[in-house]
């Protein structure tokens, strides 16, 4: 239970440092939710599956283009952004924000959290 509490603390810390975020979620590479803090009734199972799929596709592209080990994937739509970060070898961190979010701040905070989570595994 200690690891689960540490994961929740990392996610809540990220949410608190960037209040406009719509949600943060940690998922296994297989697409199962591990821990989350989501707004507006967003389905964690659906977000976890999509984040893992985006990361998997990003890994395959990165390998085939010889760009090294995947660090992150960015997705921008008309109404918001989604950043998916590798969190060690077993998990991904998904961070969702509205359009106009400060991407630099999100990257600064989320990259550190993703590394800390990866170190827990």
Please provide a written account of the structure.
This protein is of the alpha+beta class and 121 residues long. It has one domain (2-120): Dynein light chain 2a, cytoplasmic (Beta-Lactamase), CATH 3.30.450.30. It has helices at residues 2-17, 44-64, 103-120, and strands spanning 23-28, 33-38, 72-76, 80-86, 91-98. The protein has a five-stranded antiparallel sheet with strand order 2-1-5-4-3, with helices on both faces. α1 runs antiparallel to α3. It is globular and about 35 Å long. It starts with a helix and ends with a helix. The model has no long low-confidence stretch (mean pLDDT 93).
Query: In percent, how helical is the residue content?
Result: 40-55%
Largest sheet strand order? 2-1-5-4-3
Under CATH, the homologous superfamily reads Dynein light chain 2a, cytoplasmic
Could you tell me the strand content as a percent range?
Answer: 25-35%
Q: Characteristics of this structure?
A:
five-stranded antiparallel sheet, Beta-Lactamase, 5 strands, single chain, alpha+beta, about 120 residues
SSE blueprint and pairings:
Blueprint: H1 2-17, E1 23-28, E2 33-38, H2 44-64, E3 72-76, E4 80-86, E5 91-98, H3 103-120
Antiparallel strand pairs: 1-2, 1-5, 3-4, 4-5
Helix pairs in contact: 1-3
């Amino acid at each position: 239970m200690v690891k689960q509490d540490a994961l929740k603390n990392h996610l809540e810390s990220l949410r608190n440092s960037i209040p406009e975020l719509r949600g943060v979620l940690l998922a296994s590479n297989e697409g199962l939710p591990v821990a989350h803090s989501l707004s507006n009734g967003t389905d964690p199972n659906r977000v976890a599956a999509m984040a893992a799929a985006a990361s998997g596709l990003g890994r395959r592209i990165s390998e085939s283009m010889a760009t090294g080990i995947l660090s992150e994937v960015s997705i921008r739509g008309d109404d918001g952004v989604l950043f998916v970060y590798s969190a060690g070898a077993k998990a991904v961190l998904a961070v969702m924000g509205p359009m106009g979010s400060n991407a630099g701040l999100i990257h600064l905070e989320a990259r550190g959290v993703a590394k800390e989570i990866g170190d827990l595994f």
